[in-house]
Each structure stands twice: as structure tokens, then as C-alpha cells.
Amino acid sequence: MTVGPGPGLPANEYAFIEFYCDESACDCRRVFFQVIPRSQTEVVLASINFGWEREGFYRKRIPHDADAPANITRGWLDPLNEQSEYAADLLDLFQRFVLDAPYRLRLRRHYELFKHQLEQAPGRQSEL
What we know:
Layout: E1 2-3, E2 12-19, E3 30-37, E4 46-51, H1 55-61, H2 68-74, E5 76-77, H3 87-98, H4 101-120
Antiparallel strand pairs: 1-2, 2-3, 3-4, 4-5
Helix pairs in contact: 1-2
């Protein structure tokens, strides 16, 4: 996504790089993003968690954290990973402009493809 000059973020192209859980027994249905600028690809500006299922799906899996289901389904800044001064603005950009219905479906499909590849990997047994 290209962002022009304006409040919050400097003009640049930003990549939202997808990562998925590689534990074959896990069915978390979430994606982890690292947001990097084109001008400095070694710099992580934001780390975002997002889940495309309804809140109830995550409520069953994370009953000890009442806020987690809403956070996951909106997208939230991962408290355990790198964040920059621009992280909140990038999360807002993600929530307002990146995260539409077709993109949610694409993320689900990428997750399914990734999990399928895990099942097919030599030496791994399917536990899904």
C-alpha cells in the first residue's frame, strides 16, 4: 500500500507481510503481520495480529482474556513484538483501508494453503 504525505505516517510504500502458525495441531485461524517500509525493508514498523473468524470462535479458545476476541477480530498491535512510533497509525491504516471483505477471504485462503502445505511436508503428520 502506498501512503502519501499526511499526518501520522511519512510518504512511503508499506508492505504487510503475512505469517501463519506452523504448529500442525493448532487451528488458531489468525495471521501475524509485520509492516515494513519499502525504503527500509529491514525495519519492522508494526506487528499486528488479526483473526477473521467471529469473536465467539476466539472466546472459546481464549477464555481467560475477555478483551482478546474483540482485539483479534479488529486487528491489534502485538504486545510481544516490535512496534515503532508509527505502529498505531499503521494499525489504523490496516483497519480502515486494508481490511475489507475480499482481503479477509484471501487471508483465510492463504491460511488454508499454508496449513495444507504443512500437512504435506515430509516428516510431518497431519494433526488437524
